[in-house]
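Much of what follows relies on a compact textual record of a protein's fold. Think of the row as the fold of the chain written in a discrete alphabet. An example makes this concrete, so a full record is given next.


***
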Amino acid sequence: MINREDMLELTRRMTPARTSMTRIAGSYMDADGEIDGTFNTNFLKLSAGEKEKKLKIAKEIPFSRTNENLKRYRFPGDSMGPNSMWRLLMG
């Protein structure tokens, strides 16, 4: 389980000057859980205002209800390799 204090520390570092993010990617989901659209953006090319807006959203995600489902997601043993989604999320 993700420690709340660790998540608070990470969100404190999510400022335009201190972040190390280079890309943001994700999808838009409908009420049935189907993907409505996706995005993959170079974070470094965004304007200062857009960076702040995207970081504000990123700070809310770890504490949202959706993240509870993500924390309990079980990855199959063969999908935990060096370039896997599991490694990205656990990093």
